[in-house]
Design brief:
The protein is α/β, with parallel strands linked by helices. It has 11 helices and 5 strands; from the N terminus they run ααβαβαβααααββααα. A 5-stranded mixed sheet has the order 2-1-3-4-5, covered by helices on one side.
């Protein structure tokens, strides 16, 4: 991509913002005095992971507290998570990884030549599956590691049922299902990964869409 293309796209973003701000003033004015988000979302900076995958402005505005960095690890977003839980009292924290994650791929190899900032990030990505050919397992392992760290730190809140930590993977590459890319699957809730156990969790029972409930776990 050329710099001119980037300039053009950013200018379009500004035009979109100007239009949306004018069209949605009634909605936006409802949030000028503060925020009370319902969900904290820790996800990857990858451009294939926009919030638009999960709803429009009316859905997202004021409801989702977002932390983004390469590789979506709790270590990189620890301040976001602490603020979400301790100050905003958000009851649901979601770690959202995705397939074909460049950071997870890089973490399986030698990244000594990267900048210090990138090396710091990649070193926090947990992979017990270091073979890049087992990339899905690497992505899942990274998500599960972050969920485990949060559940240990905030065990009291989880035990008192004031906090739920959910691990998800968005299939941006069609790795789980080549006919359905960018579908999101739940792989972990509060450290539980067994599908039968997950299926009985209160969160899953709240899914009213039968088809979604049947396909919310990876095959």
């Amino acid at each position: 991509m050329s710099k001119q293309e980037a300039y053009d796209f950013f200018c379009q973003m500004l035009e979109n913002n100007s239009r949306i701000a004018k069209e949605k003033q009634e909605l936006l004015n409802q949030h000028t005095s503060g925020q009370k988000p319902k969900v904290a979302l820790i996800t990857c900076s990858d451009s294939r992971m926009p919030l638009a995958l999960y709803g429009n402005l009316e859905d997202m505005m004021g409801n989702v507290f977002v932390g983004k960095d390469i590789g979506n690890t709790s270590s990189d977003s620890d301040a976001v998570i602490d603020y979400a839980i301790q100050h905003l009292k958000i009851p649901v924290v979601v770690i959202l990884g995705h397939t074909d994650c460049g950071a997870v791929k890089a973490a399986t190899g030698n990244f000594d030549d990267e900048t210090e900032a990138i090396k710091k990030r990649l070193s926090t990505i947990k992979n017990t599956f270091t073979d890049i050919n087992d990339h899905i397992k690497c992505v899942e392992d990274n998500v599960n590691d972050s969920v485990e760290k949060i559940t240990k730190q905030y065990a009291q809140q989880i035990n008192s049922d004031s906090l739920c930590v959910v691990g998800c993977v968005c299939d941006t590459s069609g790795a789980y299902d080549e006919n359905q890319c960018s579908t999101t699957y739940i792989i972990n809730i509060n450290g539980q990964k067994d599908r039968q156990t997950l299926a009985g969790h209160e969160l899953i029972k709240n899914i009213t869409n039968t088809q979604l409930k049947e396909n919310i776990f990876t095959k």
